[in-house]
Amino acid sequence: MLQLTKRTEYGLIALIHMADRAGQVVSVREVGEHYPIPRRLLAEVVKDLARAGLVESQRGATGGYTLARAAEHITLGDVVVALEGAPLVASCDTHGEGGGSPCDIEPVCPIRSPLQRLREGIWRLMERTTLRSLSNAGPVFDLGAHGQRQPAAASYSTRATPSSPAALHAHLGPDAGPTTTILS
Q: CA–CA separation, 131 vs 121, rounded Å?
């Protein structure tokens, strides 16, 4: 099972909050007032997003952050890479990188190729999933003709943001736990 880290979840919440405010400067304090997120961690996450070029910082008394580009041009993949790097599916993905020892069964492994295809599919999905599609109330993907997944039609309406932990949990749904499951 692949899961987003809390850092990535908080980064996505902040980015979607910024996307919903279309060009307005958003402070860490403002995001923290709308969502039950530790402000210190949120501040570190937003600084990392700025270093990655996903947000721009504005200094001063009315300072904060804005998206560096349109929400349609920032993907879930961009955010994941900025905050946690590319996720690994199988332990053999780490062998050979950073001095790891090679896997003894790699030449005849029956799961390496299918897991690699799965990982590539997940990355393609992450790279197609934009902040705009995440900020919409509807599904990220609709099943099109012949059962093919297609990006859902964009809706640019602004939605209300949950203002309490209970409202946030209701907004995220019953499956939301300490981490958000990408694939189970």
A: 19
- Domains identified in the chain, total number: 1
Q: How far apart are alpha carbons 101 and 116 in whole angstroms?
A: 19
Residue 18 and residue 69 in contact, taking contact as beta carbons nearer than 8 Å? no
The answer to the question of residue 33 being in a domain is: yes
Look up the pTM and report it.
0.65
Q: Is residue 9 part of a domain?
A: yes
Is 111 within the bounds of a domain? no
Which residue range is the domain that position 73 belongs to?
2-86+131-183
pLDDT digits (tens, 9 = 90+) for 127-151: 899 999 988 754 444 444 444 545 4
- Note the Cα 70 to chain centre separation in Å: 15
List beta partners, residue 183.
Answer: 2
Q: Is residue 48 part of a domain?
A: yes
Contact 3, 119 (CB under 8 A): no
Give the other-Cβ count within 10 Å of 87's Cβ.
19
- Separation between Cα atoms, residue 81 and residue 42, nearest integer Å: 17
Residue 47's nearest CA partner among 33, 63, 34, 24 is: 63
H/E element, 151: strand 149-151
